[in-house]
UniProtKB/TrEMBL annotation:
SUPFAM superfamilies registered for this protein in UniProt: MurD-like peptide ligases, catalytic domain, MurD-like peptide ligases, peptide-binding domain
Protein name: UDP-N-acetylmuramyl-tripeptide synthetase
InterPro entries tied to this protein: Mur-like_cat_sf, Mur_ligase_C, Mur_ligase_C_dom_sf, Mur_ligase_cen, UDP-N-AcMur-Glu-dNH2Pim_ligase
Record's keyword annotation contains Transmembrane: no
Keyword match tRNA processing: no
Keywords recorded for this protein, A-Z: Cell cycle, Cell division, Cell shape, Cell wall biogenesis/degradation, Peptidoglycan synthesis
Positions of the Mur ligase central domain: 43-253
MF (Gene Ontology): acid-amino acid ligase activity; ATP binding
Subcellular location: Cytoplasm
Amino acid sequence: MNIKGKAKKIIPKSLLNLRHLFYAWLGSVIYRWPSNKIYVIGVTGTSGKSTTVYLLRQLLESVGYKVGALSTIEFCVAGKCKLNDKKMTMLGKMAIQKYLRKMVDNDCKIAIIETTSEGRIQHRHRFINYDTIALTNLYPEHIESHGSFDNYKKAKLDIFEYVSKCKKKNISLVENDNKFEKISILNAEIEHKKEFLKFDFDKKMTFGHGGEFVPVNINIGKDGLSFAIGEHKFKAPLFGEYNVMNISAVVTIARSLGIDWNIITKAVSNFRGVPGRIEFISEAEKEHNFQVIVDYAFEPVAMAELYKVVKILQPKRIIHVFGSTGGGRDTDRREKLGDFIGKNADICIVTDEDPYDDNPQDIINEVAEAVEKTGKKENETYFKIIDRGEAIDKAIKLAQAGDLVLVTGKGSEQAMVVKGKLVPWDDREAVRNVL
């Protein structure tokens, strides 16, 4: 364990979080309170946050807005984007305020910030003057980090409460409007929606069944998805039923900004695929007649959703490269992932993901034990390969025409965390190098 890791174990979490609070305040002062000069949309939830931010940025840019966006996937300022190489969603040490200042200086009108529960605990959202907050969904996850689902839910509620109390701005996106409204956007299908609706917002909008914007006539096929909201029909070259909800969130946010329905439907039809989210590596099918998908799914709910897409593709065999993270993340997901993938994939290759300070072989063994209990035989239908590159190489060499290789857990991430250090890594490039 490195010095930083040891310090985190010794110093009380509350004191460490006070340091984050200080940096949040200092950054806002040094960069001259940039969030007061730009419309700020926060996106939170258990899953779908990054995709929602990515798609919303595309839509707003297609309308003509200059936009900035910060997410797990990428950092963008006025059309210039780079993949997130920090292994962190909400950046610390004044970085968020620095990006907001860049957005303002580059005449961006809107900033979209993926806002996490862990970021809330560490005060990384503080001194950001939000205008809108959207919740994609809510279910048990990150329990080891928060201690319980109630604590996790409370962190999300705290974000909503914080935004509801942010100061209104005397600037507007719309002519003849002199103040931004405070708006909440909520997935109406979550069990605890009443708790989120209690906060004082100027406007409260909901999507999903039981909400204001309800997706119906949903169709998911090999070419993408289609659905309708009221009389408005949508088509998008994206996969997965969960993306219907992500797009519904984007549509709701767009309508909250007064964007015309026809403009929204056209923008949705032009959506590009999201990096590392059901990303097909085209070289595999072109050159070898099998498919490779790289996806971010790292927990059981997301994995189950991914396999719904896999079922539509109807591959001959599924060869799945996966692992589980260390660093105190939810360890109970290891057994669940091993069990689920062991039952649903034809060949499982268990490998390293992000061990942090843990022993990667111990994590692999724990996952593999669950795989073996499903009836898989070691070195026949499942393999333990600690080196992720070698694991991907093995999967590609095993693949035959009509097969599907899944590589999950990291998506478009640009690094692995090993003993406190960021080791450059990209699953997509690793696949291409083997092909």
